[in-house]
């Protein structure tokens, strides 16, 4: 289904809202960790062609989640210096490193899809 060209910013805003970057339609996840195969509104296939397509989303997830974790730890250390609560950071750091990728997972899928649509606007069906 041909749709008008969507501005890049609009695609990324839609992706941050867990919506289809191409049409803005919702309900594209059947659960927090499971994305539907295609958009229920515009029919866009979310796995666009080749094997290993979701690897890019996993990289997005890992980089963003660990960047947030590292930034939080560094900010805490800098803001509380020289009395850094090391015992608290020893617990919260690993917990955050595990929880953040889980929380960020659906956003990484939609953001990677927006990134891919930006670079490859034609669907490779
Ligand atoms: Zn759509």
**Shape type:** elongated
Q: Which ligands accompany this protein?
A: zinc ion
Distance between the termini: 12 Å
Strand order of the largest sheet: 1-2
The helix fraction, in percent, is 55-70%
Radius of gyration: 18 Å
Q: What structural class results from the helix and strand content? A: mainly alpha
Low-confidence region ranges: none
**Main sheet characteristics:** 2 strands, antiparallel
Q: Give the number of DSSP strands.
A: 2
Q: Report the order of strands and helices.
A: HEEHH
Q: Please tally the helical runs, counting DSSP H or I stretches of 4 or more residues.
A: 3
Give the rounded overall mean pLDDT: 90
Tell me the number of structural domains: 1
Relative strand content: under 5%
Structure notes:
This protein has one domain. It has three helices and two strands. By secondary structure, the protein is mainly α. It starts with 7 loop residues before the first helix and ends in a 6-residue tail after the last helix. The site of zinc ion (ZN) has 8 residues, from loops.
Give a nutshell description of this structure.
The chain is built from 3 helices and 2 strands; from the N terminus they run αββαα.
